[in-house]
Amino acid sequence: MGSSRRRTVALVTGWQVVASTCFYALFAATAVIRDAFGLSRLLVGVVVTAATLGYTVALFPVGAAVDGAGEKPVLVGGLLALSAGATGIALSDGLVPLLLTATCLGAAYATAMPATNRAVVSNVPRSARGRAMGVKQVGVTAGSGLSAVLVVTLAPTVATWREGFLAAAAVAAAVAALFAVAYDSTSGGVWSLPDVRGLRNNRAYVALAGAGLFLGAALFTTVGYVTLYFTESVGTTVAVAGLVFAGMQVTGSVGRVLAGGLADRVGDEAAGSARVLLWQAVAGVGFLAALGVPGLPPAVAVALGVGVGATILGFTGLYYACMTALVSPDEVGAATAGGQTTLNVGALLAPPAFGFVVDALSYPFGWVLLATSAALGVGLLVVVRRNVA
User: Fold this and answer.
1) Which residues have CB under 8 Å from 346's CB, separation 6+?
2) By the number of CB atoms within 10 A of the CB, which of 36, 186, 239, 345 ranks highest?
3) H or E element: which one contains 343?
4) What is the pTM of this model?
């Protein structure tokens, strides 16, 4: 990539780090939020679902804004809205305010995928997009890891988890101002809601979006419950569980970059992405299923968590690289909105179901449930692979 393209990818990746820190702080902090608000595991899932609901509902309007105004104003406004949402979480004094602000935080985060994907597609040639998407998506896992360290491990040692959210909000506001000055936007076009109906005849795209439903269920449920799992089932402290969460995000970042680079080398953009994504998802099923073994020693549980990070938390870079390769440039907004929506629908349904299963049975049954969901996604990825070979 040329210097200007590298600069663009670096700026967008930095934006993604800060945005994900604000959003995923809610997921990382489930253990401390459960204690602070006296929530059951099921209600923890409802809080996670509220954030995902806001995210999902806002996706198509945000897609329209990206296509109509270009990505820059959406990225700047989105980061300011995330700052406000993180502040609202910190100031919440009961379950209802928490649910409302979680929904608003999710809606603000909806600016991420349509706008950052457009930035990559507009500025990076096809031959390097797998790697560029992987690097950009590292912002998600890096931000998630930072959120755990900030809100779960560092902030409680000097104040409370609430101050961690306020710190994330302050950084987001500052970076929004910096991004407004430093980023050169592509121009906008027509203001209209993304129309996915034209994509229904694209069999590979439909199968990939369907796989996102099941893989998204596994991803969002894992990040929503992993700190609770390590504190309640494995027996670590909350601070250690936060570090494990952060470590999983690190391996997720590595997985995204390595998988993207490998995909660029094993075939054209669509075929290479589909092939490596399938391998990655198969490995993820194995790691999730292994977490379902009762009575795992802490070291083994951590090792399996690292594997889940590299695979289940690390698949989205290739997911979007493959998705944008399957459609024409003028369909990227609609394709991204549709693909992210299926990811989010899985995230709406799975966390409360996981929490219910754990409350009624145990964590091993919950992990087996997620492994089964991911296995269904693998089946659909086989269809994708066959249609782009």
Assistant:
1) 212, 213, 214, 215, 216, 217, 218, 220, 373
2) 345
3) helix 332-360
4) 0.73
Q: Residue 278: CB partners within 8 Å, gap ≥ 6?
A: 378, 381, 382, 384, 385
Determine the Cα–Cα distance for residues 346 and 331; give it in Å rounded to an integer.
23
- Give the pLDDT of the chain (389 residues) as one tens digit per residue: 556 677 778 888 889 999 999 998 888 888 788 888 888 878 888 888 899 889 888 887 887 788 777 788 888 999 999 999 999 999 998 899 999 999 999 999 988 877 887 877 777 766 666 677 767 777 877 787 788 778 877 777 777 888 889 999 999 999 998 888 888 766 655 566 656 666 777 888 889 989 999 999 999 898 888 888 898 888 888 888 888 888 888 888 888 778 777 777 776 777 788 888 999 999 999 999 999 888 889 899 999 998 998 899 888 878 888 887 787 766 676 777 788 888 888 888 888 888 888 888 889 999 999 999 999 999 999 998 888 76
Report the number of secondary-structure helices (H) and strands (E) in the chain: 16, 0
Residue linked to tokens 């104040």: 159
What topology does CATH give the domain 3-182+198-388? Answer: Growth Hormone; Chain: A; (1.20.1250)
| Per-residue tokens: 307 | 């594997």
Handedness of CA 338, 111, 332, 204 (dihedral sign): negative
> Looking up tokens 């997009």, which residue turns up?
129
